[in-house]
């Protein structure tokens, strides 16, 4: 029984290693940077009234991000400046648990996290599995991965993280929170 189990273990490890080799990390990075640009465009469309009037100015700075498997790459930090205040949209990365990407909105009064998650998702779910030793072992059935539609949302603070749809109302609430307005 021991050798058979070990053979099965080795087979699974080999399959896992092959799967990791097949991931196109350059493509994942490029998808993430495209989604980051889409977030910035969405925010700028919500800020259009203020940028056109000159009340808010927009700047970009480059940031080096180094992620395992992807390596180092450059991403843009978007900065909004307005009368005595400045906020930045600081990209954190794409290799995250539970999200395809994260950007932190930072201001003088705090930080709000924007996450790129499944559009259907309303928050993090915890999942537990219990295995009893002894009797017959049944492996959980692998499900086909469904096509995910990614969307930017605002994450509430832990411990019970919920996702709030990113729209004008939620964006301006987040903006006011980080500038203590």
Which secondary structure elements does this structure contain, and how are they paired or packed?
Blueprint: H1 2-22, H2 25-46, H3 48-52, E1 57-67, E2 71-82, E3 85-93, E4 101-107, E5 110-118, E6 150-155, E7 163-165, H4 168-179
Antiparallel strand pairs: 1-2, 2-3, 3-4, 4-5, 5-6, 6-7
Major beta sheet summary: 7 strands, antiparallel
Cα Rg: 21 Å
Strand line-up across the major sheet: 1-2-3-4-5-6-7
Number of helices: 4
SSE string, helices as H and strands as E: HHHEEEEEEEH
**Residue-averaged pLDDT:** 88
**How would you describe the shape?**
elongated
Helical/strand content category: alpha+beta
How many structural domains does the protein architecture include? 1
Total E-strand runs: 7
Q: What does this protein structure show overall?
A:
The model has no long low-confidence stretch (mean pLDDT 88). 33% of the residues lie in helices and 31% in strands. By secondary structure, the protein is of the alpha+beta class. A hairpin with a 2-residue loop joins strand 4 and strand 5. A seven-stranded antiparallel beta sheet has the order 1-2-3-4-5-6-7, covered by helices on one side. The protein has one domain.
